[in-house]
Amino acid sequence: MKVSVFLSAQFDPAASAVAGVDDVLAQAVAAEAGGFESVMLGHHYLAQSAFVQPIPLAGYLAHATSRVRIGFGVLLAPLLNPIALAEELATLDVLSDGRLTVGIGAGYRRRETTAFGVEWADRLQRLRDYVPILRALWNGESHDLAGSWGEVPGASLALRPVQPGGPPLWIGAFAEPAVRRAARLDCPWLIGPKGNETEVAQMLAVYRETLAEHGHSVERAYPMSREAFIADTHAEAIASVRPHLQRQYAGYKSWDDAQQLDLDRYLEEDCLVGTAKEVVQKLRRWESEHGITEASLRLQFVGASQEEALDQIARFGADVIPHVAEQPSGVSA
Predict the structure, then answer these.
(1) Homologous superfamily, domain 2-324
(2) Domain boundaries, the chain
(3) Which of 128-142, 146-160, 318-332 has the lowest mean pLDDT?
(4) Interior/surface letters 191-202, b for 16+ CB within 10 angstroms, e for the rest
(5) Which among 85, 68, 88 is positioned nearest to 76, based on CA atoms?
(6) Can you list the positions of beta strands (E) in the chain?
(7) Pairing outcome for strands 150-155 and 143-147
(8) Cβ–Cβ contacts within 10 Å for residue 75, how many?
(9) How confident is the model over 37-57, as a mean pLDDT?
(10) CA atoms within 13 A on the CB side of 92
(11) DSSP string spanning 86-132?
(12) DSSP-derived pairing of the beta strands 143-147 and 223-230
């Protein structure tokens, strides 16, 4: 299994964003040195925290690294124009020399769609439309394109991604209709940070069934995202991360499930929190029993220190990755 790290590039508005970005850069460099496969970035507009936008940040991180992949988990594609997306993501693939992975999602905050003039239901149609548009443009095809976002006859890209066919496209989803949508679009499903093994196994069965119904191979990447933390004892890990997650999920005002979250159950069943041995055992089980190929782990939370984030990256690099991971691209055994 590949292990990646989700970088929390959002800061207290009263703090220095320049210093915050320096911290994120240091985490990316540490992740590359620690053998992580990818560094992943999130995406929001009009956040209460000082949220650094992921597309320019990805270019910055690509320049500062040489091996680790740069990814989005997820990019709110329906809020953006697909032509701009195709060109900007192709640019990032060039800047990173073919190290880009693009996770996209429909989003769950009406405030964002309203700000961009996107009808709530239209965000789903845009997601369905954008995947074939991006693939066609990255493949060098020319098409007459039109949608609620605009129209362009004979659209084509002179700038081509480094990766043949363009960066891998993943779709982040929680609900069954969205999981089925990812399968119909022949995209790997980026499993979100909620759902215990039983729940995820049920959704994976739905996803694989839908792939087969549409003639798509089930042999593909199976990425998931999880909240994670390790310490010397299980109790210490729970006590350390619980306040961070409590604060984190209290901020998800638009996510109804988060308001009803049983945090203690969530920590024990859904998250990767405990000793390094416990986390390794859980990751191995996710891989062997459910086919998960990559775990993107959030190791820093809003309000946590840079020292704690770097310590977690170092711990996972030393005590978890060597026991579960494939050798990441560009690293020899």
Answers:
(1) Luciferase-like domain (3.20.20.30)
(2) 2-324
(3) 318-332
(4) bbbbbeeeebee
(5) 85
(6) 2-7, 10-11, 38-41, 50-51, 69-75, 100-104, 143-147, 150-155, 169-173, 189-191, 223-230, 272-274, 294-298
(7) antiparallel
(8) 24
(9) 97
(10) 25
(11) HHHHHHHHHHTTS-EEEEE---S-HHHHHHTT--TTHHHHHHHHHHH
(12) unpaired
Integer angstrom CA distances of residue 81 from 77, 78, 88, 93, 182: 8, 7, 10, 18, 20
Distance of CA 180 to the CA centre of its chain: 18
pLDDT at 260: 64
Question: Are the beta carbons of 128 and 171 closer than 8 angstroms?
Answer: no
pTM greater than 0.85: yes
Sign of CA dihedral 30, 54, 298, 285: negative
Indicate whether 41 pLDDT > 50.
yes
Rounded-to-10 torsion of CA 85, 90, 91, 96: 130
The pLDDT tens digits of the residues spanning 218-239 come to 999 999 999 999 999 999 999 9
Q: What is residue 255's predicted lDDT score, i.e. its pLDDT?
A: 46
Long-range contacts of 277-283 (CB under 8 A, 24+ apart): 278/234, 279/228, 279/230, 279/320, 280/319, 280/320, 280/323, 280/324, 283/1, 283/3, 283/320, 283/324
The Cα–Cα gap between 137 and 192 comes to: 28
Best CA proximity match to 65, nearest among 102, 103, 100: 100
17-20 long-range contacts, CB within 8 A, separation 24+: 17/50, 17/52, 20/50, 20/52
* Residues 236-289: tens digit of each pLDDT: 999 999 998 888 777 654 444 445 679 999 999 999 999 999 999 999 999 999
Q: Could you give the angle at the alpha carbon of 322 between the alpha carbons of 264 and 272, nearest 5°?
A: 10
Return the number of other C-beta atoms located less than 10 Å from residue 259's C-beta. Answer: 11
What's the one-letter identity of residue 58? A
The rounded distance, in Å, linking the Cα atoms of 319 and 324 is 10
Q: Which residue has the tokens 């759902």?
A: 195
- The pLDDT of residue 328 is above 80: no
Distance CA 71, CA 58 (A): 8
